[in-house]
Amino acid sequence: MILVMSFFFILSSCSSQSPLYISRKDGMSTVSFLAMDTILTISVDNQVADKKLKNTYDEIQKFENAYSAYITDSELYKVNHNLSEKTEISDDLYNQILISQKVSKMTDGAFDITVLPLIRLWGFSDGEYKVPALNEISETLKTVGYEKIHLDEQTVLLTQGSNIDLGAVAKGYIGQKIADELQKEGSDFGILSLGGNMQLYGNKADGSNWNIAIQDPLDESSIVGIISTTDCSVITSGSYQRYFIEENIVYHHILDPKTGYPADSGLISVTIVARDGAYADALSTGLFVTGLEKGIEIWKEYKDFEAVFITVNNEIYITEGLKGRFSSESESYLFEYIYK
Ligand code: AMP
Ligand code: MG
Question: Can you tell me whether residue 89 is helix, strand or coil?
């Protein structure tokens, strides 16, 4: 009894304290915490009040509780389980679905947030990985398709047992939202890291750009290059980020909505640099699925983002707009620029 009581005492005394520690270095304040299945680190100039910086933790937690497909009282869970009628939705959910629909159209459905039933089937939702039977995949594919989402300003309706997963766009969306809010609070410069998703604004205290490393997909301890930039998002999708191996075959977490299998597009990593975080996040996943050729076509058509594509053949293709901003000392890859 005493043990149980002291356990509750410890718990309650912990929860009354802030779980966050603010570290200070080079004129910046930094908080780091676990949320959305990853490590988040937010560093800003010292003009941001500690309270505001700590509030970002609550905000991200609230965001995750609302838009995770796996939390049973989330807003998204409600949408996914209310299949016969329209569900009223918040602005944040509306915005995330809207940008997802845009990227689905841009990529001819290679990006598709209705892949959730497929993600469950492969076990990427709970870590119970398995290679599904062919007939399971073809059955599940019937529920996949972005045109099954009927969105208007306040409501959404899903048809044919469809379910939404925002895993490919949510981190980019909330990273952008928080960066915007911090700037409104008077912050001049900052760098946010949400897992591999980087959100940047302003210039460092010494006036220079931020340097963002791109991980070597084949070697966790190396990088393939550095992008020097600011006022944008730098977001990478890669097959090395989450996968399982069965009978010597690697199955990764980015699925091709047309085949129902992990995308086999010849790419192992795609980094997108764009003004908006949600757009960059969705595009990095989408272009991973389309592959290099179609990805270049899309880049030429839209012209509002830059990209670094890494292929299975150790080639790195960099779009023209990154010329002078991308540097590398890696000798393991062949580098080539793509021009318009
Ligand atoms: P990211 O790390 O942003 O590339 O997102 C990958 C996550 O998005 C996966 O773990 C799935 O939850 C989900 N996902 C997988 N394939 C797709 C796809 N083709 N379109 C949209 N979301 C996807
Ligand atoms: Mg993404």
Answer: coil
Atom 3 (ligand 1) nearest CA: 168
Are 188 and 48 in a shared domain? yes
pLDDT tens, 42-70? 999 999 999 999 999 999 999 999 999 99
Q: Is residue 172 part of a domain?
A: yes
Q: Is the CB of 112 under 6 A from ligand 1?
A: yes
Same domain membership, residue 220 and residue 182: no
Ligand 1 pocket, residue 89 CB under 6 Å? no
Compute the distance from residue 163 Cα to the ligand 1 centre, in Å.
13
Cα–Cα distance, 129 to 244 (Å, whole number): 7
- 124: Cβ below 6 Å to ligand 1? yes
Instruction: Provide the whole-model pTM.
Output: 0.94
pLDDT digits (tens, 9 = 90+) for 196-255: 899 999 999 899 999 999 999 999 999 999 999 999 999 999 999 999 999 999 999 999
Q: Which of 67, 108, 255, 272 has most ligand 1 atoms within 8 Å of CB, for mutation?
A: 255
Domain range enclosing 133: 82-158
Please give the structure tokens belonging to residue 223: 């990088």
Strand, helix or coil for residue 49:
coil
136 shares its domain with 239: no
CB of 169 within 6 A of ligand 1: the answer is: no
Nearest by Cα to 286 from 112, 149, 124: 112
Helices (H), the chain: 2-15, 50-67, 75-80, 91-106, 116-122, 134-141, 170-184, 277-290, 292-302
